[in-house]
Amino acid sequence: MRLSLLLASLLIVPAAHAQSEPVADAAGLQQRLQAIDADPATAGTAAYERLQARQALASLATVRSNQRASALQVAQWRVETAEIAASTERSRRELVELERQRSQLLVEASRQDAVRARQEAERLRIQAQIQAEEAARLRLAAEEEGAARQQAETVLQGVASGEAAKLRAARQREAELKRREAELLRSLEP
User: Fold this and answer.
1) Measured between alpha carbons, how far is 127 from 131 in angstroms, rounded to an integer?
2) C-alpha pair distances (Å), 15 with each of 12, 62, 68, 130, 143
3) CB 90, CB 41: distance < 8 Å
4) Which residues are within 8 A (CB) of 148 and not within 5 positions of it... i.e. 6 or more apart?
5) Percent of the chain beyond pLDDT 90?
């Protein structure tokens, strides 16, 4: 009798151990599935895969003991599939967010480039205006010098040879001003 009880207990212990192991595995799979649900980054993702994993875990309770190992394997695959799908969806969302941020940065960089271009255009416009005003001033000075030269020529016609030297100096000055004006106008040409 003791021998038969001992034999029966030896057969039951491994069977009970074998049943407790899949239950522990099923509980671990259930926890992994709950971790996906609890994570805010993956909570709304991979709904179909999570449903399949829940169904596979639920079927573990109803399968026969000889089918338990294969049902547990299927449940494990379903949970892994749900984890991978949730992780993939989270990565896809992060990628979309990074693309959105990149687009915003590109728009901001373009806006800043446009602002710099407008500032440079304004600086060049002001510089051109200053140069044009300087050219006009030099032209006016040259015209005044020309008028003074003509007046001096009229006066010099009646003056002695010493005054002729002054006339030559005035002509040299006029030539110098014209040369400057020509140089300035050449520098203003685009």
Assistant:
1) 6
2) 5, 17, 12, 100, 119
3) yes
4) 170
5) 41
Please state, in angstroms and rounded to a whole number, the distance separating the CA atoms of residues 68 and 75.
10
Question: Please, how many CA atoms are within 13 Å of residue 90, restricted to the half-sphere of its CB?
Answer: 14
pLDDT in tens, 27-41: 899 999 899 888 888
Q: What are phi and psi of 46, to 5 degrees?
A: 50, 50
Mean pLDDT of 53-66: 90
What is the dihedral sign for C-alpha 9, 11, 12, 17? positive
Contact between residue 168 and residue 118 where contact means Cβ atoms under 8 Å apart: no
The pair of three-digit structure tokens given for residue 113, joined into one six-digit string: 């480039």
Please name the residue that has the structure tokens 């685009």.
190
**What pLDDT shows up at residue 20?**
39
- Convert the pLDDT of each residue in 144-173 to its tens digit: 888 888 886 776 566 556 677 787 888 898
Residue whose C-alpha is closest to residue 28's, from 75, 85, 81, 89: 75
Lookup result for tokens 């200053």: 130
Beta-carbon contacts of residue 163 (< 8 Å; ≥ 6 apart): 155, 156
